[in-house]
Protein 1
Amino acid sequence: QVQLAESGGGLVQAGGSLRLSCAASGPAFSGSAMGWIRQAPGKERVVVATISGTGRMWRYDASVSGRFTISRDNAKNTATAYLQMNNLKSDDTGVYYCAASEGPLATMNLNEYTYWGQGTQVSVSS
């Protein structure tokens, strides 16, 4: 069973930065793609960034491209994913979930994420 645990959320002023972390572990976790998913108040979940199992490929939603950077560190049966968020805007407010898929390919398809963390709140004040 894969377990994911996010940290790093909080309250920040517009234009500020935050760094989210996600620790993934489990006997079956090896080389799976990971993603960060945002759920803004009253809206659907959206994949904002994804990274492949090797960490060599990544993709971003247009709303965060150029401001957010996803990365990961891999170890045997574990990985830690990061989301560096710069120049934050009020529209970035929401709960950020870390998720992992079954396969190694980075994906912007929400339905391909099998394992989910509990989420961490990011609030950006204008």
Protein 2
Amino acid sequence: QVQLVESGGGLVQAGGSLRLSCAASGRTFSIYAMGWFRQAPGKEREFVAAISGSGGSGSGGNIYYAGAVKGRFTISRDDAKNTVDLQMNNLKPEDTAIYYCAGRPGLLHTTAGEYNYWGQGTQVTVSS
């Protein structure tokens, strides 16, 4: 069982930056692929970024980004701290959403339904 808690959301002007963090419980965090998803009002939850399990190496092997955030967002993990972060730069109003951290054993995936564990979400609001 894995419990996930996100933090770091807030209000920022367009062009600004935020760093989201997800803290995970559990001893086997390193084997879990971790993802970030977001959901804007009236829209379906969408994939943002994912990083594969590190197998103990600490940093994760494979990383994948949605096209809308590639080049602006960076996902990273620290298995020693059981955390996965999402650095978001050059934020745009269309990035406004609730951001969710998710985890699954095995390979990373871009589909929300493939993830077993979810955090409660953190609100990110980007003003124009």
Protein 3
Amino acid sequence: QVQLVESGGGLVQAGGSLRLSCAAYGRTVRFYVMTWFRQAPGKEREFVAGISPNDDSTIYGNSVKGRFTIARDSAENTVYLQMNSLGPDDTAVYYCASPESSFAPLKITPDNYDYWGQGTQVTVSS
């Protein structure tokens, strides 16, 4: 059974940084696409970042490019999201997601992902 567990959210002032963690159980993160999405109240779930298993290539949502970094630690079987220069628009629940198949490509729409964590709240005050 696959379980993804996010942590690291919290309250931070604008301009600050946070690092989110996604610990995976029941799967080895280096063999699968791993992604981060976020959802703010009243908005659709938005792609934030993703990392591919084969070459560690990454893609980012336009609103976070240059500020967020996704990385994988195979020893810890964990995926991280380093978030810098945070602003109030980054306030959301952040989710880790991964597909069922190790052959699935990295895509930016949430319906491509089968496993989701419970989410971690990030709140940025102005």
